[in-house]
């Protein structure tokens, strides 16, 4: 199944004006700072720290409670990822995940693992310690999708923010293998950034 989103030129220019700003020499680049803040604040609104889960009642007054079917969610993610990649803005998803990962403030890996499991995001395991690689089995973001490149940018950012809380060091997380590429799980390499002396 292929889904195409078509914009006419006028609509495309409208979105470009909203989504981009220019630097001092006229080059356009995404301006996603407000979007990152807005999304993270929305996630925080209904998050119950004690239970480590989201409280649906705080997000919606819908009569029908429960989650949308996973396959509908996945296809929406797939379409969004394609559009975000076209904009060259995967960093925005990473930043959103990073800020929310810091908000979680897990004290240890066990708490982070519990958060992923309770919210059906996947099953976390430490694959190796040198280099530090975290394996996410049954990834909710990409399981069942097909893509040439890793696509779990939000998860990578979330792991970065959370691991900084756990390790008390600045880290960068890079997804090195993705279930969407046909691997058995998603693999994230955590690189600790050495502070300059």
Automatic annotation (TrEMBL):
InterPro entries: NO_sig/Golgi_transp_ligand-bd, V4R. Residues 131-192 form the 4-vinyl reductase 4VR domain. Pfam families: V4R. This is 4-vinyl reductase 5. SUPFAM superfamilies: Ligand-binding domain in the NO signalling and Golgi transport. It comes from the Archaea.
């Amino acid at each position: 199944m292929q889904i195409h989103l078509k914009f006419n030129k006028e609509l495309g220019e409208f979105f470009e004006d909203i989504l981009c700003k220019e630097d001092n020499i006229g080059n356009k680049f995404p301006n996603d700072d407000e979007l990152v803040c807005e999304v993270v604040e929305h996630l925080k609104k209904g998050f119950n720290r004690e239970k480590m889960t989201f409280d649906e009642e705080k997000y919606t007054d819908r009569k029908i409670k429960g989650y949308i079917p996973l396959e509908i969610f996945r296809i929406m993610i797939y379409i969004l990822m394609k559009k975000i990649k076209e904009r060259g803005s995967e960093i925005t998803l990473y930043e959103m995940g990073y800020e929310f990962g810091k908000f979680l403030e897990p004290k240890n890996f066990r708490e982070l693992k519990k958060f992923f499991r309770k919210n059906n995001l996947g099953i976390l395991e430490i694959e190796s310690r040198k280099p530090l690689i975290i394996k996410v089995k049954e990834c909710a973001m990409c399981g069942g999708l097909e893509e040439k490149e890793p696509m779990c940018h939000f998860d990578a950012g979330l792991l970065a923010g959370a691991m900084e809380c756990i390790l008390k060091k600045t880290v960068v997380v890079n997804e090195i293998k993705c279930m969407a590429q046909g691997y058995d799980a998603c693999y994230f390499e955590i690189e600790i950034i050495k502070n300059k002396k």
